[in-house]
Amino acid sequence: MRLMRQLPQRTHWIIRAMNPLLKRLQPYPFERLRQLHAGVTPNPAYRPISLGIGEPRHATPELIKAALTQSLSGLASYPATAGEPKLRQAMAGWMQRRYGLAIDPLTQILPVNGSREALFALAQTVIDPTQPGATVVSPNPFYQIYEGAALLAGADTWFAPSDPARNFAVDWAAVPQAVWEKTQLLFVCSPGNPTGAVMGLDEWKLLFELSDRYGFVIASDECYSEIYFRDEAPLGGLQAAAQLGRHDFKNIIALTSLSKRSNVPGMRSGFVAGDAAMIKPFLLYRTYHGSAMSPIVQAASIAAWDDEAHVIANRALYREKFTKVTPLLAAVMDVALPDAGFYLWAKIPDRFAGDDAAFSRELLALYNVVVLPGSYLAREAQGHNPGAGRIRMALVAETAECVEAAQRIVQFIQST
Questions:
Q1: Which domains does the chain show, CATH number per domain?
Q2: What are the angstrom distances between the C-alpha of 79 and each of 111, 294, 356?
Q3: N or C of the chain: less Cβ packing under 10 Å?
Q4: Is-above-0.70 flag for pTM?
């Protein structure tokens, strides 16, 4: 009782300051989309169809499910951050078959919990915020993790201009020397999100020359590499490096994932590969960060990387879908088959006055179809937002559903 009498009558709660860098983050595109559609009543005459989120919805291969269920004993063990040797060997084996590269599974490859997590963590490893003006260069439009990773690592983001006439290929030559001099990390995405553009060897050659001159690291996001529409598979960053005689992969890290390739976004499984001098400190960071992959997921990942038949079948489904959907939409808007990926990056008709957000709201209200405004995937830079007046459509549902969505979009455009 005496102790209770000694307690103060009023308690003052002290709230310590949060990381101030969190204030620099912008709302994620899908949160902005949710706010945009708040209060909209979709037309009940149509069943809802979403082309908004790039979440694979094809069936998960049975061989991966079997590997998961047969590996439940792995729950009894702590996993190693570096992953099991058999897993790293499976990943290296896939790199050999896919790109013709001899990757050392012990020093040049590391499993990660999906490419999104690794993109963020890599920036925390690479960036030195004590250097004045520490900068990360990013494409624009872009995957928003690039910006968030840079800002929370204490760097600034500089958005490189893109050329709509060349499928929004990034104009790296337009980046000023003063920016390159402060650049510590460059994000590239090939095949690109949202444009589907694939980088060629000349483009890689320029970036390697710039990296050698200014010393920055290249993070090559390649999570869409296995969904493509040409006969030739997209060129990978490490593949380009090897073709240009850079067999040590100096200052380049490639990141890939099973999510799109194998329709297992819920597994959160991928890997990074490249410069051994970068992989070593990245492993150290991840050891403290607690990023070890579950033994069960490792077993399923081995099964996935070792099998190509399900990837070929998956790619065929996307090719059929895009073959049917693209001509329907091309009749009423500026859109074309991308090089790769599962997005259509379309320009809305001029009579909508470039208001991609209003287009998205009205389409939902009248035809119950969700698309993502292109301006949400870009930033105002060099005087304009390169995503303005465009929409991104993720063709991840079954073919019939995507065709129906395209038909509704056609009706919407023709009736407004």
A1: 23-59+310-415 (3.90.1150.10), 74-307 (3.40.640.10)
A2: 11, 6, 46
A3: N
A4: yes
